[in-house]
Amino acid sequence: MGRAIPTEEGAEHERELQIVATKGIISLFNAVTEFQTTQQKDQLKEEREKKIKRTAGINSLGSDKTTGAVGMNQTLIDKIQSTQRKWKVLEDDSEDEFGNIKVVDDE
Asked: Fewest beta carbons less than 10 Å away: which of 3, 28, 71, 84?
């Protein structure tokens, strides 16, 4: 059952099929457009909410007179440094009395 060239008797039936196909394609494109606009609106809404949270966080840092942003940054730095792995070469006892670097084996 392949594609048959329409004859004059089937021309009306072919026209009806074209109309149905056109309506289907139009409804498909309308659905895609609606989905895209909905996604764009949701994305803009999320970006606005993130911006509001950021500005609220910055404003709250400035309102704390005792520590302010400096205290907040210092606690963040301390937290990061405590989670980082320290190199044995950088420790104070990694050099001998002449300033030569000792060879350290990881055991």
From this structure: 3
pLDDT in tens, 15-45: 999 999 999 999 999 999 999 999 999 999 9
Range of the domain at 48: 11-94
49 within domain boundaries: yes
Residues 6+ apart with CB under 8 A from 101: 89, 94, 95
How buried is residue 70: exposed, middle or buried, by Cβ count under 10 Å (0-12/13-18/19+)? Answer: exposed
Contact 104, 94 (CB under 8 A): yes
In a domain, 2, yes or no: no
Cα separation, 19 vs 51, in Å, equals 48
pTM: 0.43
